[in-house]
Amino acid sequence: MKKSELLKQARGIKKAEKVFKNAAVVDVFNERLINCDLAVADGIIIGVGDYQGEEEIDLSNMIISPAFIDAHLHIESSMTNVDEFAREVIPRGTTTVVADPHEIANVAGITGIKYLLAAGKAQPWNFNLMLPSCVPASKFEHSGAKLSAADLKTLLNEEGIFGLGEVMDYPSVINGDQEIWEKIKMADNIFKDGHAPALSGPDLNAYLLAGIEADHEATTAEEALEKVSKGMYIMIREGSVTRDLAALLPVVNSINCSRFCFATDDRHPGDLIAEGHIDFVVRKAVQYGLSPLRAIRMASINSAQILGIDNLGAIAPNYKADFLIIDNLRDLNIKAVYKDGKLTAENGTLLKSVDKKVSADISKMMSSEIKEKIFNSVKLGQINESDFELPTAKKYRVIELLEDKIVTAASVYESEADYPGEPPKIELIGHNLVKLAVVDRYKAEAKVGLGLLRNFGLRKGAIATSIGHDAHNIITAGLSSKDMYLAVKEIEKMQGGLVIVVDGMVEEKLELRVGGLMAEKPLKVVADKLVKMRDKANSLGVNRSGPFMTLSFMALTVIPELKLTEEGLFDVKQFKKVDLILC
Fold it and tell me: Ranges for the Amidohydrolase-related domain (predicted)?
């Protein structure tokens, strides 16, 4: 219908198509509630005020809020297919996502992006897909694909493509590397997302010359304040591993509030079910002292304005009729979700009329290329148990885990005696150390990078995962070389997954056949399995609530300070390879 045909409904001369009555409407522009009717027609909001409707819905003193927007996330981190993720988050109020597919793109390149785009567009939400800027994340690691500006340009005009994904290789940006700047130039007319952990001073100034608009990597109030003062938007991240809400909320005030929004980045399936999605971030922000109306504003209109989307995020004329029915501002329980003016979810469940397996028709996409690149992505070269033995040394560099952070510290371990081989297990345990290995899963020529990890807590066996941000090579931690080797071989057999091996026996495993990242199972099944595997890992001494997700970030060479790739240890601050052995 033409908007000109809605004028009489908007003016109240003619009954509106649908009117929601007896509710308080959230005015995000003024952070207040307005007692009024909400008129909707043809999927958009045509007015707030006093209206009569062809269909009238009595909300009995409920609250109408704009639906939520996740400004930056990786669907792959849910470890389930897109339809399962959508089925979980839409009833929780998220009707718009901005997804960066660099996880599956690192595994399968353009094929992976197209796979996720088709699956995302099939869901009853607003799906915006970013073009991953760093595949691989840096030149110091090997992934399943390498995407140039020319490769990405072929997708620019695809429906659903929204912007350039987080520009993680900030050293290349500030040093004028031609390859990354070709991608930045290619994205001149679209939103450019940032990724600049701890970047400050002149280096931050240089980074911003690229036209990068937002960042979700700020972890301290001082960092966020500097970035805002230099014109950046801050996406306050509250994920499963990295939780920055408590540290950053004190910076938000009435003057700068418009510079902040919320993002989840990486949310674990168990956390999605137990805690929620953006609705969880809103509730938690309120618990930390933010007013409920400001929290809703940051989850809706702020996100839309930061992203440059002009018809989302508010209950106002000419905005999409994407809104939530909430019981009260104290608990923020979402009773119903409307998408384009239509009831889409109610009481935490996607309606059956909507949930008719609204996933991409994968059967039409299952070409030999899809099968090979996405469902047959683990191709190990020849590896042996001895590849997981530490070299003989007196002093070793150590990757040190920090609580609730994906940033790590660097430290040193000095063995207590001159051993003929690697230090004994009992000594490693005494120093709170485990062996860490990253195994290339894409090349016939086997490469295994070795390191030491502190504060993981494992005292027996080995765990392994094919989720290894961002190249997604296989990562394993353990005390037994044999168990580490067997865990890696089990992942090869499953074509991706999570594994726990103890004393030469596979104790637990979860198959992740979709790019080695996602399961072909319901979210609840995956979540329950992960709980079981977490409990098993904890029984072996692991002291992390998300042991596999924690492990997955140990190969990410764009997050300080010390990380491990299949090539060996990498110092992110110096942005160069370093030796495991100090002497």
Answer: 63-343
Segments in the chain below pLDDT 70: 354-367
Residue 183's Cβ-count burial label (10 Å; 0-12, 13-18, 19+) is buried
* Separation of CA 123 from chain center: 18
> SS3 letters for 283-294?
HHHHHCCCCHHH
Strand 94-99 relative to strand 126-131, pairing: parallel
Q: Which of 417, 533, 439 is nearest to 489 (CA)?
A: 439
Count of C-beta atoms within a 10 Å radius of residue 22: 14
Helix, strand, coil proportions of the chain in percent (round to 5)? 30, 30, 40
CA-wise closest residue to 491 among 502, 479, 499, 483:
499
Q: What secondary structure does DSSP assign to 91-115, as a single string?
A: GGTEEEEEE--HHHHHHHHHHHHHH
pLDDT, position 156: 95
pLDDT of amino acid 360: 46
Helix (H) or strand (E) holding 40: strand 32-41
pLDDT for position 559: 83
Q: Do 83 and 359 contact (CB within 8 A), yes or no?
A: yes
How do residues 393-419 score in pLDDT, each as one tens digit? 999 999 999 987 778 999 999 999 999
Q: How far is CA 227 from CA 220, 230, 298, in A?
A: 11, 5, 17
Cis bond leading into 84, ω under 30°?
no
Residue indicated by tokens 């989307």: 309
